[in-house]
Amino acid sequence: DNEALERRRLPGAQKDRQLLKRTLQGLCFFEEFDNEALEELADAMEVYSFEDGDIAVRQGDKEGSHFFVVAEGGFAVTRDGRRLATLGPGDAFGETVLLLFGERTASVTCVGNSTAYGMDGIEVRDLLRQQFERKREATICAMEEVLTHGKCDIFAGLSAYQLQSLFDKADVRHYAAGEGLLEEGSGEPKELLLLCGGSFEV
User: Fold this and answer.
1) What mean pLDDT comes out for the span 11-22?
2) What are the Cα distances from residue 79, in Å, to 58, 90, 108, 109, 177?
3) Cβ(57)–Cβ(64) under 8 Å?
């Protein structure tokens, strides 16, 4: 329960932020998070200490509140008493709490003394919502910049409804120096790319 989990919390403990960010970005929930959002997520996660035999997640529990990333040590995953896997540093478990509804599909038990990063699912959903709103705002600003300055004639005759549909489907991408957008001979492009900032060589 939450009281038992609170007793395992290690306030002020050091975090392996690279491990955390790498693991989080590999999860489908966070794959579109930018570096700033991943930093916020890493900041918000707490460090918890578990002893051998401690049950971090219990199968069938509908009241579970946290999801975890293994920091050190290991955890055994079992379902209906059958061992499915052993988790080590960088592995995540308990992601079902990130969904609005759902129960724990397996039990996760500590093997030896271990630590894990954990965060309340409600807080994670708040960060997911904030990230979605930031991305949408950035997309709308970029599209409006293109429209306002008449940088793309094909948008000139679109209705408000069509423009809104366009905003809903568009996204903003960031490219590192030297990264390619299109390759010669790769065939007809399947999407329209609008340059919102920076410069590219052809």
Assistant:
1) 93
2) 9, 21, 9, 11, 47
3) yes
CA distances from 143 to 6, 137, 165 (A): 46, 10, 12
What whole-number distance in Å separates Cα of residue 52 and Cα of residue 111? 5
- pTM more than 0.70: no
pLDDT at 149 over 70: no
As beta bridge partners, residue 57 has 108
CB 44 within 8 A of CB 123: yes
Those residues with Cβ within 8 angstroms of residue 111's Cβ, 6 or more apart along the chain or in another chain: 52, 73, 74, 75, 76, 86
| Residues in contact with 188: Cβ distance below 8 Å, sequence separation at least 6, in sequence order | none
How do the residues of the chain divide into helix, strand and coil, expressed in percent and rounded to 5?
35, 20, 45
Amino acid 12 reads G
Q: How far is the C-alpha of 139 from the C-alpha of 127, rounded, in Å?
A: 18
